[in-house]
Amino acid sequence: MNPNLSGVWKANLAKSKLLGPTPKSIVAKIDHSDTDLSVEMTITMPDSSEHNLAFKGPTNGTKVCNTVKGREWQSQMSWIGEEMLIESWVDVGERKCHFCDFWFLSNNGQSLTMEHRNDDLQGQITLLEQA
Asked: Span 7-17+24-130: which CATH code?
C-alpha cells in the first residue's frame, strides 16, 4: 500500500533549499486517492503577489497534459517504492525543461518532502508540514 499524501501542507522555508527568490509562503492542498493525485499550490512572494499552480493525473505512470501558468506540461506520476515521482516536460520559449520531483512522507507522516533530482532544478528541496 502506497502512502496517502492528502492534506493541506505549508512549507517550512527555514528547512527548505529553494533555488531562486525565497517566497513568503508556499501552501499545497493535495487530494490523493489510491490512483489519482490532485494538487493546488499557492506561492506567495515577498511582495505579497500570489502564483497559483494546479495539476492532476493518475499515479500509474500514464502521461497527462496539464496547463500550468499558461504553459502545456506533459507529466507522469508513478510510485518508486514509497516515493511518488512526478516527472514533467515543458517548453519555455526554445528551452525544453525537464523536472523529476520526488515526493515522500516522513516516518510519522507529519512532513512531506519534495526533492528535485537529476533535472533542471536539481538540489531544490521543499519541506512541507501539515497545516
From this structure: 2.40.128.20
Cell of 26: 508556499
Position 48, amino acid: S
Domain ranges of the chain: 7-17+24-130
Report the candidate in 2, 17, 45, 47 with the shortest Cα–Cα distance to residue 113: 17
Which tens digit of pLDDT belongs to each residue from 107-126?
A: 999 999 999 999 999 999 99
- The phi-psi region of residue 35 (left if phi > 0; otherwise alpha if psi is between -120 and 50; otherwise beta) is alpha
Q: pTM to 2 decimals?
A: 0.92
Strand partners, 52: 42
Q: Residues 22-69: pLDDT tens digits?
A: 999 999 999 999 899 999 999 999 999 999 999 999 999 999 999 988
Amino acid symbol at 117 = R
Q: Which of 5, 52, 19, 12 is nearest to 121 (CA)?
A: 19
